[in-house]
């Protein structure tokens, strides 16, 4: 049930809803979630079907344009993205300003934000063609920057994108290849990363997307807006949860310690990372796909007896039987299993949230574009409940 309360502001009345438990900030035609039933649709298509039958660039086209592409549209879109993956050589120099051990998300915020200083030719946000060019540039260049943050971190040379590779293969190539060896992508692992990207591509008005919309509502350029989304994604309650969930599994270390750890959660000493969601009060549909992907990747790598995967399944089983989790409707979310898959793919733990940012870029861009294209949109401006001092007169410093 929806009540449009905007007219109340004219009467001087407003609502108090910190953390937005029951406030819609916009209308949108992009992503639908039914948290009670555990459903997630992009433009009406169930996430399970897209994860199984589609590929990431097709999903990007869908999110951005509203419809699945025809074969010709898909080829044109893919070619367009593939030919924009290079970044300006001067952008590469930004990296040297960071410490080698800087967290890759810190580097991402800075370098993606810096893109706005490189593309003055397409920053008129009221021009739909400029918006389209910016969207494609972001989609194509964020993976290149992401891979560069990793290479910089480990002290290896940057690998230039190769047009012969598909989008996901290219991301893996830029992260893992070295000039010394021929890189041959493993199709099972490429497919697994493709699925991770599809599952994380959009999730309606989450914290980072809302941040992008709020920044964009002031007319800020899209590169700056996406950098603000990356910053909001970083926190452990949001995109940082995959990193936190894997660290948690490593800390538990052994199945025998699961009951003791769960007790600590119930005693509120810490949270079960990768569990719970503001909207899902049922299984996150992305978590089921991710668990299946986990099986497939570990089988391919002959790691079926992976200790952390066994531990995660035991933790899930224990939690789902416990009244603490049942009463609060806490189920695994997408990030409970994604860390195990990312680790198996050879992606270092500090890059997990970066991969999430690569995936979510299309969601942020699509949501930003939808907002700007709406001629009625206004600057986002929440109100507050003032609880500070009442009016008082200034006291000179000698009398304080
Ligand atoms: N472990 C233990 N208890 C939890 C957890 C958890 N992961 N999540 C929520 N709870 C408890 C809260 O302590 C609270 O208990 P109370 O009623 O006794 O006070 C109750 O469940 C309700 O939780 P809220 O904090 O009100 O839920 P909210 O919607 O604000 O939080 C959030 C959602 C941030 C995702 C939370 O569940 C959490 O911190 N989970 C762990 C981090 C995580 O996995 N984040 C990823 C989210 S998905 C994504 O960003 C892709």
UniProtKB/TrEMBL annotation:
Pfam families: Citrate_synt (PF00285). It comes from the Bacteria. It catalyses: oxaloacetate + acetyl-CoA + H2O = citrate + CoA + H(+). Pathway: Carbohydrate metabolism; tricarboxylic acid cycle; isocitrate from oxaloacetate: step 1/2. One of its GO terms (cellular component) is cytoplasm. One of its GO terms (biological process) is tricarboxylic acid cycle. The active site is at 277, 335. Keywords: Transferase, Tricarboxylic acid cycle. Belongs to the citrate synthase family. This is Citrate synthase. The lineage of its organism: Bacteria, Pseudomonadati, Pseudomonadota, Betaproteobacteria, Nitrosomonadales.
